Structures are given as C-alpha cells and as structure tokens.
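stuck on this one:
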Amino acid sequence: MRFLIWVVVNALALAAAAWLIDGISVSGGSTEDRVITLVLVALIFGVINAVVAPVLKLLSLPFIILSLGLFLIVINAAMLMLTSWISGEVGLGFNVAGFWTAVIGAIVVTLATWILEAVLPDRD
C-alpha cells in the first residue's frame, strides 16, 4: 500500500510541475492517456531517485557541503532531466525543455511531494 501511495504522490507532484511550468509537458490523446503517462513517469522518476540520486549525492558531497545544500537542487534537476530523457526513449509523452526549467520543476516537485506527504496519513 505504501508503494502505491508513493507512486501516486510522485505522479501528482509531476502533474503539478507540468501544470505550473510551461517547459514541462505531459502529452497524450485523452486525460486517461496523460494519467497513465504520469504514473509510468512517476515509476521511472522513483527508480532514478532510488538508484542514481544516492550515488550522485555521495560523489558530489563536497559541493553539497560547500553550497550549504543548494547543490541538491541541481542534482534533483538532473534527475528530472534524466527522467525526461528516459521517458522519451521509451515513448512516453513527458518532456522537460531545458536545465533551468528542470531546476524550477525540481523545486515544484520537491515542494509538492513534501506537501502531499504531510497531508496524507502515515499508515506505518
């Protein structure tokens, strides 16, 4: 159940970023297609954040410390761009236009995820 909630939260956060930012788009013929695309992209985004992000954070730890944690925004933006690239490679209609769009999108996704996890009840 926790996994399903986690996927839905990621999908809603990505939907919020796509809705708020012009450079992030989710394409599909119908609303159902866009929802399915968002769920699949949320799965890709989650796997990337579970596998690639920790390694990248460990390797860039000196930069994270020197920037007082602000470099984490750059890492999150890179994870969003990687998600966009992989989504394009597998034929999903999710696109992030550029780096600065990804930076703003990473901030929106982080804030939306934080808010949604605070609102949803903890079942553990």
